[in-house]
Amino acid sequence: MGIETTTPGIVAIIAVVWGVTLVTRWAGPFLMQYIPLHPRVESFISAMASSVLIAIVVPLAFAGDLGARAALLSTALIMLWTGRVMPAIGVGLAAAALVRQLF
Amino acid sequence: MNTVKAGRAEGELPRYRLAPEQVRAEFVQLLPIAVFVAIFGVAFGLAAVQTGLAPWQATLMSATVFAGAAQFASLGLWGSEVSLLPLMAITLAINSRHILMGAALYPMLRRVPPVRRYGLLLVLTDANWARSWQHYQSGRENLEAVLGGGLALWLAWVAGTLAGAYVGGMLGDPSALGLDMVLGCFLLAMALGGPRSRRVLVAWVVAGTAAVLAWRWLPPHSHVIVGALAGGLVGLFWLEKPRHGH
Lengths: 103, 246
What we know:
The complex is a heterodimer of chains A (103) and B (246).
Chain A: E1 2-4, H1 7-32, H2 39-63, H3 66-82, H4 85-102
Chain B: H1 20-29, H2 31-51, H3 55-65, H4 68-76, E1 81-83, H5 84-95, H6 97-104, H7 106-109, H8 114-120, H9 126-137, H10 144-167, H11 182-193, H12 198-217, H13 223-237
Helix pairs in contact in B: 1-10, 2-3, 2-4, 2-10, 3-10, 4-5, 9-10, 9-11, 12-13
């Protein structure tokens, strides 16, 4: 089944993408109402939440070019060294720009 | 039904009131990131117009959906018509991380009245969630970051899309300046800035490995949710010492 990309069709497509996205934004807290906050559940959720960011970033390094890897690596190093977010990002971007200029 | 531990029952919970000045402060806190989000909004606006959307349609999509990766992916399905099931499946796969993110904030969110709770979740996205979650792990309750930071990011995303749809192309190539890496670097910095216990480190190794394997061999866009669930299993079987209430 498809939706034609006419004006009303495009609005319908946008509505579908919005609707599905909204369900994902609302489903977590909604479902949690019915799950008792047992320590094991909390531990599962907290480990999962901490892992979301890593699961986004690590494949980014694998899929990316040398510049992307340089950016992530230098951000990680500065972050572990100084613990400050903005310098870490700044150095990361500079590393990506530099590597892409050179190679 | 009230067999839950004392102090856990719904009625006894102290209400979480969002402090307006804290919401404003969080808006300002995420403005530097919002600048880069705007640049990617420009890229989306440009791509959308090139795909065949009118500028107002691109802007409507950014204003409602407010999820960059899913929006770009839906452009990838564009033709004289768009197939409904793949559209829904891909959107769900890319955005399913929101489910985990929202669930993680539930201990705070449940103390917010429902209308406000679901209202502030409208602007839930990676960067403002990451900040709120990092604070929560360090023992600070900061739902204001979700709302204030989310509004900053939303405004930037919509404004960027609008600009890109009308005057895009003037921007050159943002990746030459490394600008495409802003969000990745920010999310990594947020992850590393949080508490790093042995349990968290093990969860990261499992999550990162599973995510890469899924990215290689499982259907596209499934790697985030696969990696996160794999990391969650570490938490399921390895419990930290019980946390004291805030």
